[in-house]
Amino acid sequence: MSDAAPSAAPAPSLWRDRRFLRFWSAQTVSHFGDRITELALPLIAVSTLHASANEAAWLTALIWTPNLIAIVLGAWVDQRPRKRRLMVAADLARALVLLSLPVAYLAGAVTLGQLYAAALLTGTAAVLFNTSYSSFFAHLVPRSSYVDANSKLSTSRSVSLVAGPALGGALVQALSAPAALVADAASFLASALLVGRIRTEEPPPPTSQPSMLRRARAGMVFVVRHPVLRATLGCAATVNFFTFLSGTGLTVLFATRELHLSAGGIGLALGVGAVGSLLGAVVAPGMSRRWGVGPSIAVGAVLFPAPIAIAALADGPLWARGGALALAEFLAGIGVMFFDINLNSLQAAVIHDGIRSRVAGAYSTVNYGVRPIGAAVGGALATTMGLRPTLLLAAAGGALSVLWLLFSPVLRIHSLDEAPATAPPPKTDEQPASTPRAVTLSSGTSPQQDPDPSRPALEP
To answer: Where is this region: Disordered (predicted)?
Structure first.
């Protein structure tokens, strides 16, 4: 799907590329830190501040609320000449915000309002990092090594999903949730140091550009008019809305108050369950070759949200309740990797490099923007109808997201070579007359991700 002719030369080994190894190390450290905060932040709200279901849900909602401005921020990032500096600034900002929480806790002054402010600020910094990431990555790694690079990055994230929750649970139990946040702040400082030492040749933005709002609008128009992006955005946004009805805050609350699991038990269950993510990352490329890219996306769209019902129906002795949570996470982990790896590869194959940040921002505004709405609705539903029914609704509604794909070209796409090609935007309105580059990623998670927020993989 690239405009450049394929090269016969073998891809250079990334093991000898110090710049990439620094970046890979930065991402790996940061992923492990994220796993700690995903557990510690809601536990501060639930255990220390005795937050209600609705208050815990708002904590998750505020982390994702900044994605509503991603369409504008992505257009702004397109004009910035040094994406690396923006990524470093985002890492430093998140470290400072997280460090403020244990300081306030030691002073006996931590409040729910401060948690909300921390969630909002770290979420904003994450949007800045993610909209800068895709362009930075394209100029850091040689084109022939994109697949290898994304495989390594995907593996690191999957390993963090396996070991990180158990590590986070142990730290929270040993040190308290606020003290454990110091580890995540340190991970962002390490990431900033490593990324800051990377030197890349980033081409300057064109001197003549349309206004930021026109660039933002162009990104959204590109998504809406493209048959693949339009259908996959509807599918991913539906998945995100319903899975965030039972977002991390409510899941931790449910595991604590309904399943009666300890912080260490929750972390262990999530860590054991996250083996599914690692397994999914390993088997997804092979299954994609067997089933096709489009059908694999459809399988992931069902397999990712449906297992929430297993946790919701958990009962019996402690080992059965913890095992049900782990099994739900295991199956969902496989599903999210099937969904992420194939969907992100397909998206990258049809988006031109010159508009990557603004299209990523437009996509994130809808895809991630529904997350805070879903979390807020989930909190209201949990308050009125209870935690278990809310989780069951999340499982059923999320699985129905596959309907978006049934009447689109996506299910007919077996390989990336069959993805519908698109022309670059008119140079008179959106970009200079340089040759566009469509970057094809394969079996790794998208550089965009996660992002989490934490920076989760579905981070579609």
So the answer is: 418-460
